[in-house]
Specification:
Helices cover 78% and strands 0% of the residues. With 58 residues, the chain is mostly helical.
Length: 58
């Protein structure tokens, strides 16, 4: 449960960072910094999903 909460916090921080980078780069989703942060967020979401799928009864 604590791991899940920490991961949720990391996801929210990564999401916020992505939003700020998009704004800073004037909406250019193809900017390398935006793409890199998007991949970081994707991996955190994938990790969260893997945790939830491995739970009994999920």
């Amino acid at each position: 449960m604590v791991m899940s909460l920490e991961l949720k916090n990391q996801i929210e921080k990564a999401r916020h960072n992505l939003h700020m980078l998009v704004e800073h780069n004037e909406g250019r989703f193809g900017h390398p910094d935006v793409l890199q942060q998007s991949m970081v967020l994707d991996e955190l979401i994938n990790e969260y999903n893997r945790m939830n799928l491995s739970k009994p009864g999920a």
